[in-house]
Specification:
about 100 residues, alpha+beta, Alpha-Beta Plaits, 4-stranded antiparallel sheet, 4 helices, about 30% strand, globular
């Protein structure tokens, strides 16, 4: 099953993220290497959020990621939520 982690970024996010960026990216790379994080990235124009797609048995993996993410801990993310995503086309676990 896939889960999408939705992030809402705070005011002046782009300017404020620099001191936390390397820690956030290292944290995300580690989740990707473990096979939990499929892909992720910021939304643009305006940069007011981000989407991260996780693969797992339940939403706990995405929720745990958010709770420990350096961006969340630094207050750069003002809100986050996780929703299940039913993949129909593409991906190795698409519905048949």
């Amino acid at each position: 099953m896939h889960y999408i982690l939705f992030y809402t970024t705070g005011e002046h996010y782009v300017e404020r993220r620099a001191p936390h960026r390397e820690a956030h990216l290292a944290y995300a790379r580690s989740a990707h290497e473990r096979g939990e994080l499929v892909m992720g990235g910021a939304l643009g124009e305006p940069v007011d959020g981000a989407l991260l797609i996780f693969r797992g048995e339940n939403p706990a993996i995405a929720e745990s990621f958010a709770k420990s993410d350096p961006y969340v801990k630094a207050g750069l993310i003002t809100e986050w939520r996780v929703r299940p995503w039913s993949v129909v086309i593409g991906g190795e676990h698409a519905a048949q």
